[in-house]
Amino acid sequence: MLGKLREAVSSTGSREPAVGLFVDGPNVLRSEFDVDLDDVRAAAAAVGRPAVVRLYLDEHATPGLIQAAEARGFEVRVTSGDVDVKLAVDATAAVDDLDTLAIASRDTDFKPVLEHAARCGLETLAIAPGSHGRSDALRNAAHEAVTLESDPTD
Residues 6 or more apart from 116 whose CB is under 8 A from it? Predict the structure, then answer.
């Protein structure tokens, strides 16, 4: 479905679709997944122009992680409360400015956000950190889903 949107936009000469990428840091950036932020960003960029690229972290995030994310073009949001709530509120608020909403997480709490975006006419993308970290609920709620796999040579 996202491919059709890209083709339609390209064939009419209109702008590339605006993608909002919202990354649930505590659920994606875990040692068992070995996720590269560049891969997360590339998965979202494959469906359009990244208009919002945000990484949500809790108060335990290291300065090195924050610096690395910012160096890769992420706007970092650190919250002392629940990361899920801030991400969900921000993603829902951004719906009017986007063509595609991409959420990188393994948390089913974001299923209503994807459903809301779809009801508002947006394409939706669920990005999972790995096959054992994939949420079937998120995958099934989204128009398209991507599962990041770590390099088998690692």
Answer: 92, 95
The model's pLDDT over 43-100, given as tens digits with 9 standing for 90+, comes to 999 999 999 999 999 999 999 999 999 999 999 999 998 899 999 999 999 999 999 9
The answer to whether the beta carbons of residues 43 and 19 sit under 8 Å apart is no
Neighbours of 150 (CB within 10 A): 15
Measured CA to CA in angstroms, residue 97 lies from 20, 25, 72, 91, 113 at distances of: 9, 23, 22, 10, 15
On whether the pTM is more than 0.85, the answer is yes
Cβ neighbours around 95 below 10 Å, total:
17
- DSSP assigned state of 97: G
